[in-house]
Design goal:
The complex is a heterodimer of chains A (about 350) and B (about 525).
Chain A lengths: L4 E3 L2 E4 L4 E3 L7 E3 L14 E5 L3 H8 L4 E4 L4 E4 L2 E7 L7 E7 L2 E5 L21 E6 L11 H17 L3 E5 L5 H9 L6 E3 L1 H12 L7 E3 L6 H4 L3 E4 L15 E6 L6 H6 L4 E3 L7 H11 L3 E7 L1 H10 L3 E4 L20
Parallel strand pairs in A: 3-4, 4-5, 5-6, 10-11, 11-18, 12-15, 12-16, 13-14, 13-15, 16-17, 18-19
Antiparallel strand pairs in A: 1-2, 2-3, 7-8, 8-9, 9-10
Chain B lengths: L1 H12 L3 H14 L5 H7 L11 H12 L3 H11 L2 H8 L12 H10 L5 H14 L2 H12 L8 H12 L3 H7 L11 H7 L4 H4 L5 E5 L13 E5 L4 E8 L2 E6 L15 H4 L4 E11 L2 E2 L2 H5 L9 H6 L2 E11 L2 E2 L5 H15 L4 E3 L2 E2 L4 H8 L9 E6 L7 E11 L3 E12 L8 E10 L2 E8 L5 H13 L1 E5 L2 E4 L4 E6 L1 E4 L7 E4 L2 E5 L11 H11 L1
Parallel strand pairs in B: 1-12, 7-9
Antiparallel strand pairs in B: 2-10, 2-11, 3-4, 3-5, 5-6, 5-7, 7-8, 11-12, 13-14, 13-17, 13-18, 14-15, 16-17, 18-21, 19-20
Helix pairs in contact in B: 1-2, 2-10, 5-6, 6-9, 10-11
Classes of the chains: A alpha/beta (about 350), B alpha+beta (about 525).
Chain lengths: ~350, ~525
C-alpha cells in the first residue's frame, strides 16, 4: 500500500490513519493552511503549524487543534509527519510524510518568492510530490514582488494626485497582510474592511508585527477615507459599501490579472498580477528541487502541468481534489487566495 | 513605442468614454508627429496589409519559448488573444530595450513584405527581444490587427476634433479617402483637405426610440405618419458643389462603396440632402440584410456583387432643399417636396419609402403584422408636424418593430470568448430537435447578464462531454429562447437555415430539452418568410 492514497474524503495515510486537508469530516486532519478549501469544518482533531492555530480557531471556532513548529516531527503509528514552510500565507506548510524510507510531500498551496511574512518555501527531497498547479501554464510568470509593489506605489500616488482614494482588492487572509506589510513605507495608515480587520487583530494578538490599520465602520468620518489606501476583500467589488469611498480607483491584486481579459471583465482601473501561488517557473523549480520520481498535480491547470512534466521525463498524473476555489474550473472569478 | 503602448493600456483599462477621449487627446498633443498619422490609420480601418501571418507568429513563438504546440494552444484558449499569448510566453530577455518609435516598427513591418521567410522571422524575433512585455503585445497587435480596446473611429474623430477644434463631421471628411501614413502628416491632412469639407457635411441624424406602450397613447392617429421600417443602413445622400456624398449613420463617408448612386450626381438639383435607407433591392423588393453585408467593408465592388446585391436609396425625408436647411419645416411639407423631387427625377436608384395610410390605431396594428411580407422589420411612427431633430429623442418619432421570431433550443457546444470574456464560456451553439437527433442551427453570443454568464460558465465546466480544441460539447440540458429578426435558406449550415441577428432572449430554466422546437418549425418559418 502506498504511503498516501487519494480517497473521496481527501488525501489519506492508511498506516498513520490521518488525512491531509480532507474535505469530508474525519478523525484526524493535518492542515496545510487556514484557507477554507484546505481547512474545513467538522474534523475531530486538527494538526497544523503553530502560526495557523489562531487562524484556524478564528475560522472554525472551538476546535481541538495541536500546533507544531516547522521541522518538528510527530509520529502516527510509526509514520513520521513534519511541517515545512510553503511561503503561501502566514502559517502555511508543506506536509512531509515518511514511512520507512519512503517520503511523500504534500505541498498545499505555495509560492517560491519570500513575501516577508509567510516564510521561505523549503524544497524537500522526496519520492512522491503532490503539488498544487493553480497557475500551471507558462503564461503565468510573475515579476519580482519588488517591481509589483513599486507599480502599486506609483498607482497610489497617481490616485492621490487626482484626489482619489485607492481601493485594493485582496483576499482577507494572506494577500491583505502581504500588501500592508510591503507597502507600509509609503502608507501611514491603511483603512480596512471588517473581514480584514478581524484577521489583523488575531495576528497582532499573536505577536506578528503588522502596520497600523483602521477598521472602516458606518461611523468612519469621510475625511479619514479621502485619498486613503483601502484594503477590501474581492467580494466588496461593486457593493454598496464601496460607494462612500467615491471618488476612488479600484485595483485588483491577483495572479489572474496577468491576463487582460480577466481584468477588463472585473471593471477594475488597475490589475496587479501579485499572487501567493507559485508561477509556472516556480512550479517547475519546486518539482525539480524535490527530485521526486512521481508527481501528482491537484488543482488549477493540473492536466496541462502533469502532461508537460510527463513529456519532460517526470512521471506525473492529475488527481481530482476539492481544493482550489479559484482553479481553472472557476476561471479565477472572485478567487480566494490567488 | 512607449507612448503608444501607454495609450493602448490606458484605453483598454478604461470603461469610461471620457477617460478614453482624454487619453487620446493627451496622446495627440504630445506624440511624435510621424506617429500620429499611423495612430489615426490604425484606429480608422487603415491598418497596413499583413506581411506576417498568425501561423508564422505562433510557430516562431513556440520555437523561441521552447514549448510544445499543445501547450501553446492551451495558453491561447485561456488568454483568448494571440498577440497577448505570445507577449506572455516569450522569455524576458533582459537585453537593452529599444527606443524605436511606433512609425519605425510599422514601416519596418511594411518593408519586409517581399522578404524571404527566414528574414521575416529574424526581424520579428529581434523585435520581440527588444521590446518589453506590454510593447510586445502592442507590436503583435500591429500585425494581427483589431485592437478591440473600445476605440471606435468615431471616438478617434471626436478626440481629434477637440484637439484641433474642428467640428467632428468636417474632420471625418478630412481624414476620409486614401492617404498613406508614411507620406503625410496629421497637420497636412487637417489643412489641405479643408476645401470641400463643408460641402460634404451631413446633418446629424434624427433617431427614434422604440415604442414601448400601445400606439393609442400617442394621441390622434391623424397627427401621425407611418412608414415601414427598413433593415438596411441609414444614410444621407448629399449633392452640393456639384459633388455627390453618401454618409452612413456612423458619419462614415461611403460614397465609393455604392456606384449605383453615381448617376444621381447629374440629375439631383444642387443643394439637396435626403435622409433614407441604403438597401439591397431586387424586383421591387428588399433583399435580406445578408446581401447588403456583402457590400459593406470592401473598397472595390465587383461586377458580380453589383448584380447579386444591387442597392437603392429608399428616401423618407428631405433635410436641405435648394441649398436651404429645411429641418424646421413640418414633416408633412418636407415629405411633399421629397415626393415631388423623387418622382421628377425618376431614377431606379432613388426611391420613395411609401407612407402607409391608416385611419385608426387598430388598423395600423393589423398592418404592422404584415411588415415581414413587405420585407420590413416593423413600422416607423412620425408626428406629421415634427421638425427634424438632432440625435435620439423621445416624443415625435418612434420605431415600432415587430416582435422577433423566437425558437426554444438547447445548448450543445460552448466555447470561451475573447477580450473581456476571455477564459469564460460565453459563445454557445444551439440545436433544435429533428426526430431523435439534435441539429445545430445557430450560435449566439449575447443576451445573458454577466451573472447568468457566470452561471452557465460554471455549469459548462461541470457538464462537458468532450473537448474539441477550444470547443466543449456539453450535455444537452440547458434550454434557451433564441430570438432573431429574419431567416434565410443556407446550404452552408447543416440545418439549412441562416438567422439574422440571433441572440439569447432568455434562459428557459422552466423548460426541459424535450420541450424545445423542431427543425420542422424552423423550416416552416423559412417557407413563410423566404
Amino acid at each position: 500500500m502506498s504511503v498516501l492514497q487519494f480517497t473521496d474524503k481527501g488525501i489519506y495515510c492508511a498506516a498513520g490513519d490521518f488525512y491531509i486537508d480532507p474535505w469530508r469530516p474525519v478523525q484526524r486532519a493535518v492542515i496545510t493552511h487556514a484557507h477554507s478549501d484546505h481547512a474545513r469544518w467538522g474534523h475531530q482533531h486538527y494538526l497544523c503549524q503553530q502560526d495557523s492555530v489562531p487562524l484556524l480557531k478564528l475560522r472554525l471556532g472551538d476546535i481541538s487543534v495541536q500546533g507544531v513548529s516547522f521541522g518538528e516531527t510527530i509520529a502516527y503509528n510509526g509514520v513520521r509527519v513534519s511541517l515545512h514552510p510553503a511561503g503561501h500565507i502566514i502559517g502555511s506548510a508543506q506536509v512531509r510524510v515518511q514511512q520507512g524510507n519512503e517520503v511523500w510531500v504534500v505541498s498545499g498551496d505555495y509560492k517560491i518568492e519570500n513575501d516577508g511574512l509567510s516564510g521561505q518555501f523549503e524544497p524537500l527531497p522526496c519520492q512522491v510530490f503532490i503539488t498544487e498547479s493553480t497557475f500551471g501554464l507558462p503564461i503565468y510568470n510573475w515579476q519580482p514582488q519588488g517591481m509589483i509593489f513599486s507599480q502599486i506605489r506609483d498607482w497610489i500616488n497617481e490616485n492621490r494626485e487626482a484626489g482619489k482614494s485607492s481601493v485594493l482588492l485582496a483576499y482577507s487572509l494572506g494577500k491583505a497582510q502581504r500588501l500592508m506589510y510591503n507597502l507600509a513605507d509609503s502608507v501611514d495608515r491603511f483603512m480596512v474592511h471588517g473581514a480584514i480587520d478581524v484577521v489583523h487583530q488575531v495576528l497582532l494578538a499573536n505577536g506578528h508585527s503588522l502596520p497600523p490599520a483602521q477598521r472602516i465602520t458606518p461611523d468612519t468620518p469621510k475625511a479619514d477615507l479621502k485619498g486613503s489606501v483601502i484594503i477590501a476583500p474581492p467580494s466588496a467589488a461593486g457593493s454598496v459599501w464601496m460607494r462612500k469611498f467615491n471618488p476612488y480607483a479600484l485595483g485588483i491584486c491577483s495572479g489572474w490579472m496577468q491576463v487582460r481579459g480577466h481584468m477588463r471583465r472585473r471593471n477594475a482601473d488597475a490589475g496587479f498580477a501579485l499572487s501567493d501561488h507559485a508561477d509556472w517557473t516556480g512550479l517547475l523549480q519546486a518539482v525539480k528541487a524535490t527530485g521526486a520520481e512521481k508527481v501528482f498535480t491537484t488543482h488549477g491547470f493540473s492536466s496541462a502541468f502533469a502532461r508537460y512534466l510527463q513529456e519532460n521525463g517526470i512521471e506525473a498524473a492529475e488527481v481530482k481534489t476539492e481544493f482550489g476555489t479559484e482553479d481553472e474550473e472557476e476561471g479565477g472569478e472572485e478567487g480566494s487566495s490567488t | 513605442m512607449k507612448a503608444f503602448t501607454h495609450l493602448v493600456q490606458v484605453i483598454s483599462n478604461s470603461t469610461k468614454t471620457n477617460e478614453k477621449l482624454d487619453a487620446l487627446r493627451r496622446y495627440f498633443a504630445t506624440a511624435d508627429d510621424r506617429d500620429k498619422p499611423w495612430v489615426l490609420a490604425l484606429f480608422s480601418g487603415r491598418r497596413p496589409k499583413r506581411t506576417v501571418n498568425s501561423t508564422q507568429l505562433k510557430n516562431w513563438c513556440i520555437q523561441a519559448a521552447g514549448l510544445p504546440e499543445w501547450l501553446f494552444e492551451e495558453c491561447y484558449h485561456t488568454v483568448g488573444d494571440l498577440a497577448e499569448t505570445i507577449a506572455l510566453l516569450l522569455p524576458e530577455t533582459g537585453q537593452l530595450l529599444s527606443t524605436h518609435p511606433l512609425h519605425y516598427w510599422l514601416e519596418q513591418l511594411i518593408a519586409i513584405e517581399k522578404a524571404p521567410e527566414p528574414e521575416k522571422q529574424q526581424f520579428i524575433l529581434q523585435a520581440w527581444q527588444e521590446l518589453e512585455t506590454n510593447e510586445r503585445f502592442v507590436f503583435n497587435k500591429l500585425i494581427t490587427g483589431g485592437f478591440r480596446i473600445g476605440v471606435s473611429q468615431q471616438m478617434m474623430v471626436n478626440a481629434l476634433a477637440q484637439t484641433y477644434d474642428i467640428p467632428p463631421a468636417t474632420l471625418s471628411h478630412m481624414i476620409s479617402g486614401n492617404w498613406d501614413p508614411r507620406q503625410t502628416s496629421l497637420d497636412a491632412l487637417l489643412h489641405e483637405n479643408h476645401a470641400g469639407a463643408d460641402a460634404s457635411k451631413p446633418y446629424p441624424f434624427y433617431l427614434a426610440y422604440a415604442l414601448e406602450s400601445e400606439p393609442g397613447t400617442l394621441g390622434a392617429p391623424e397627427e401621425w405618419i407611418a412608414e415601414w421600417k427598413w433593415d438596411g443602413i441609414r444614410g444621407q445622400l448629399i449633392k452640393r458643389n456639384d459633388q455627390l456624398f453618401v454618409w452612413s449613420r456612423g458619419e462614415e463617408l461611403i460614397t465609393e462603396k455604392f456606384p449605383e448612386y453615381a448617376p444621381l450626381l447629374n440629375i439631383l438639383p444642387e443643394g439637396t440632402v435626403i435622409d433614407g435607407e441604403i438597401l439591397t433591392y431586387s424586383n421591387n423588393f428588399p433583399l435580406p440584410f445578408q446581401f447588403l453585408q456583402t457590400r459593406i467593408g470592401r473598397k472595390n465592388v465587383t461586377k458580380k456583387q453589383l448584380q447579386e446585391a444591387p442597392v437603392v436609396f429608399l428616401s423618407y425625408d428631405l433635410l436641405e432643399w435648394e441649398g436651404k436647411d429645411i429641418r424646421e419645416t413640418p414633416l408633412l411639407e418636407r415629405r411633399q417636396l421629397l415626393t415631388q423631387l423623387v418622382e421628377k427625377i425618376n431614377h431606379p436608384a432613388l426611391r420613395l419609402s411609401p407612407v402607409i395610410t391608416f385611419d385608426s390605431w387598430e388598423r395600423l396594428t393589423e398592418l404592422r403584422q404584415q411588415a415581414r411580407d413587405q420585407g420590413s422589420e416593423g413600422l416607423m411612427l412620425k408626428r406629421s408636424n415634427s421638425s427634424y431633430q438632432v440625435g435620439r429623442k423621445r416624443g415625435d418619432w418612434w420605431k415600432w418593430k415587430i416582435d422577433p421570431f423566437t425558437i426554444d433550443a438547447v445548448m450543445i457546444y460552448a466555447q470561451k470568448g475573447h477580450g473581456r470574456r476571455a477564459d469564460l464560456y460565453t459563445d454557445y451553439t444551439f440545436a433544435v430537435k429533428d426526430g431523435g437527433q439534435l441539429v445545430p442551427f445557430t450560435k449566439a453570443y449575447s443576451g445573458l447578464t454577466d451573472k447568468e454568464i457566470g452561471e452557465v460558465d460554471y455549469w459548462v465546466k461541470r457538464n462537458s462531454l468532450e473537448k474539441f480544441g477550444p470547443v466543449r460539447t456539453v450535455k444537452p440540458e440547458l434550454v434557451f429562447e433564441i430570438a432573431f429578426e429574419g431567416i434565410a435558406a443556407s446550404n452552408r449550415h447543416k440545418s439549412g437555415v441562416a438567422l439574422r441577428f440571433p441572440r439569447i432572449h432568455r434562459w428557459r430554466k422552466d423548460k426541459s430539452p424535450q420541450e424545445i422546437n423542431t427543425l420542422e418549425d424552423l423550416q416552416q418559418l423559412l417557407q413563410q418568410y423566404k
